[in-house]
Design a protein that fits this description.
3 domains, alpha+beta, Rossmann fold, elongated, Aminoglycoside 3'-phosphotransferase, Chain: A, domain 2, Phosphorylase Kinase, domain 1, 17-stranded mixed beta sheet, 22 helices
Length: 700
């Protein structure tokens, strides 16, 4: 039956014999040991309840999941963003495509919680064993996998220290947010000794060539120096000598919801540095360990950057701190972060790790060698000479992997992974096909400034489709724009945005005859977004990139060409100037008078940027006006239509983000639309009026 292990797979915890299923129990013929099956789940060990919600609420959640559906129950109960992600987001397993596992792989998810990683693994791999000690959690997972039709998931209720499996069983073992707690569950000896026993057992369970994925915090993560709460329930304990942390814990009245398992009140939730983890894993029998910085954390691994690639680590750190923020950080924290950016050994201080460990040398699974096979012979190197980094977003169906060659200090290629339902047809994604047709189309045109990636190869991998494309030359424009002091040099801003717009104008001209799929006609509907508004939207008709942001452009100082990536949104029917408005707004410019403000939300920050760009009297707004008026002349658009076209841009942009389920981006653009309509003067660049009936300002 779904959810039950096959009889030959379970081991007796008393004598190590092979268990047999008899009626409502699993029994060992050798020693007579027996474990009951209750509610379709074999129960090896029962652990006192602990969790993020009280036990009575957890039981009510399980009942609601069974009666009304697991997803609806989870969405109603977990409205907090982090908890919603924790229970629902399949991209918590964003690291899986990097392993290159096949559809026949067998995985073990230890401490599976409410089953989000189990669910993600089951959509791609052959068999998944989901182990959880808390009854309410594994029963929620049972409702989840049954309702999703995932018959390849086997549920086992047992403790992490009592795993009833044979050696050499698994291709993948997931240890996510578990290793740090092992010392609380196993009180024999020191916490490190307990962790070693646990890891040695995990190593024995791996097949030859198998890999363990470990998600955990860094003992020396910079957040700990800023007062982040440790697993002890107190700040700073991870930074203290272990004995000192125990003494402080004993003298404190604070109690974490999980530390009540430790009656001695000892500090037993050990974490380590990168070096400490490598030593721990080596002592446990893992001959190789590779570490990635997981940002914003191992439970939300939306960015994975290899620690050994110092340049990639610095680039991502700079990206983090240079992003526009709705709330300015306190001065002390801002100074600390600026110092971190300049710290050569910053990789030592990243907060969270994702680690891949194996008993044999691990090189990144089957995906990396496949990449190398597709590249020209002159570009192929030994396996050790490339590193992979990953980027995705919450609840996204896509992610991007980048190949970095340290010897050449350059990105070599880029792969995109599109997640699909388990039984979906293995057809190439629309983006890959569009890129192939676009390459053919542009080769027949006269193109000087706009460059698109070269599609290289594609293949199905589990429930994902992976396609490889060439990496754009030059520097990602977002890194340039968000570097400190960029907007203090108006001449440079003018030159570089003029270069980007020139490529956008050329692209628009060359796409006019490209057969692109039409965008949804409903994206033109203003009334569906702002019912109080009634206004004509510019007639559709232009084929445009659709996401012409500074993140998707690469500028090379030694060339006039602009690399343009991410063609998933190319389509017919965008209003004129859509791509150029997208470029301008993505810059996030806020004029100096507003820059030090503490905005209440991301929406208010976006509105301040919108006003600075399109309604300001500053030098950047003036230059943007001149560039857009010049673009109108080249594209045969009357400049007086700029306000009307800007309105059309906001309407289509909001609808497009809703269609992509990008909730925050949709809210931001809807806020811009409402505020734009409610602004009484509605002058763009102080000279172009938006001639529409008055619309009352929406009530907050």
């Amino acid at each position: 039956m779904p959810g039950m292990p096959e009889p030959a797979q379970l081991k007796c915890l008393q004598c190590g014999g092979r268990l047999q299923q008899q009626a409502e129990q699993w029994r060992c013929p050798a020693c007579g040991g027996a474990w009951l099956i209750e509610g379709g789940i074999v129960r090896f060990a029962r652990t006192p309840y602990w969790g993020e919600i009280p036990q009575d609420e957890a039981r009510a959640l399980v009942a609601e999941a069974r009666q009304q559906g697991w997803r609806a129950a989870a969405n109603r109960r977990f409205t907090d963003r982090d908890m919603n992600i924790s229970v629902l987001d399949p991209q918590r397993a964003s690291w899986l495509p990097m392993l290159g596992l096949g559809t026949n792989a067998v995985a073990l998810d230890i401490g599976s919680g409410m089953g989000v990683l189990t669910h993600a693994l089951a959509r791609s791999l052959g068999t998944v064993y989901s182990v959880e000690a808390i009854a309410e959690r594994i029963e929620f997972t049972q409702a989840r996998v049954q309702q999703e039709g995932l018959e390849n998931v086997h549920l086992v209720q047992t403790a992490a220290a009592a795993l009833p499996f044979f050696e050499g069983t698994f291709d993948l073992i997931v240890i996510n947010g578990v290793l740090e707690w092992v010392g609380e569950w196993d009180l024999e000896g020191t916490p490190r000794e307990a962790q070693l026993r646990f890891l040695k057992n995990a190593a024995r369970l791996l097949k030859p060539g198998g890999v363990a994925m470990i998600g955990i915090e860094n003992r020396w993560g910079y957040g700990n120096f800023l007062g982040a709460r440790d697993h002890s329930g107190l700040p700073y304990t991870s930074l203290m000598p272990r004995r000192a942390a125990t003494q402080w814990l004993r003298r404190s009245a604070a109690q974490h919801h999980r530390t009540r398992l430790n009656a001695k009140r000892e500090y037993r939730t050990y974490t380590y540095s990168a070096r400490g983890y490598r030593r721990l894993l080596r002592d446990a029998g893992f001959s190789s360990a590779t570490l990635w910085w997981a940002d914003p954390g191992y439970n939300q691994p939306y960015h994975l950057i290899p620690l050994s690639a110092a340049q990639m680590v610095r680039e991502h750190l700079r990206d983090m701190f240079d992003l526009p923020q709705s709330k300015q950080p306190r001065r002390a924290k801002k100074i600390i972060k600026e110092l971190l950016v300049r710290t050569p050994g910053f990789a030592f201080l990243v907060p969270d790790f994702i680690m891949f460990a194996g008993r044999e040398q691990f090189h990144g699974g089957g995906l990396g060698p496949w990449w190398l096979e597709q590249l020209p012979p002159s570009a192929q190197t030994e396996r050790e000479a490339f590193q992979l980094a990953s980027r995705t977003y919450p609840f996204s169906s896509k992610q991007v992997l980048r190949m970095w060659q340290p010897e050449r200090a350059r990105y070599r290629a880029l792969a995109k992974v599109e997640l699909r339902e388990r039984d979906a047809a293995p057809d190439p994604p629309q983006e890959f096909e569009s890129l192939q047709r676009l390459q053919t189309h542009l080769q027949s045109q006269t193109v000087r400034y706009a460059q698109v990636p070269r599609p290289i190869a594609a293949r199905a991998q589990g429930n994902a489709f992976v396609f490889l494309e060439s990496f754009a030359p030059g520097t990602q424009f977002s890194r340039t724009v968000r570097s400190p002091g960029y907007f203090h040099d108006p001449g440079r801003v003018r030159r570089e945005f003029e270069t980007a717009m020139r490529a956008g104008i050329e692209l628009t001209r060359n796409l006019s005859s490209f057969q692109a799929a039409p965008i949804d006609p409903g994206w033109q509907d203003l009334g569906a977004l702002v019912p109080a508004a009634s206004a004509p939207i510019p007639a559709p008709g232009w084929v445009q990139h659709g996401d012409f942001t500074i993140e998707n452009l690469f500028l090379d100082p030694g060339s006039e060409a602009v690399g343009i990536i991410d063609w998933a949104t190319v389509g017919a029917g965008y209003p004129p100037l859509y791509d150029l408005f997208t470029l301008a707004l993505s810059a996030g410019y806020v004029e100096p008078a507003l820059r030090q403000a503490r905005f209440a939300s991301e929406e208010e920050l976006a509105w301040a940027s919108f006003q600075s760009l399109f309604a300001g009297s500053n030098s950047i707004s003036t230059q943007l006006c001149e560039l857009l008026v010049g673009a109108c002349g080249q594209l045969n658009v009357e400049a007086s239509r700029i306000p009307e076209l800007l309105l059309g841009f906001l309407v289509v942009r909001t609808h497009s983000f809703r269609a992509r389920d990008s909730q925050l981006a949709a809210r931001i653009h809807l806020h811009l639309l409402e505020q734009f309509l409610a602004t009484r003067e509605r002058l763009v660049f102080g000279r172009f009026p938006l001639r529409l009936p008055a619309v009352e300002r929406p009530v907050d």
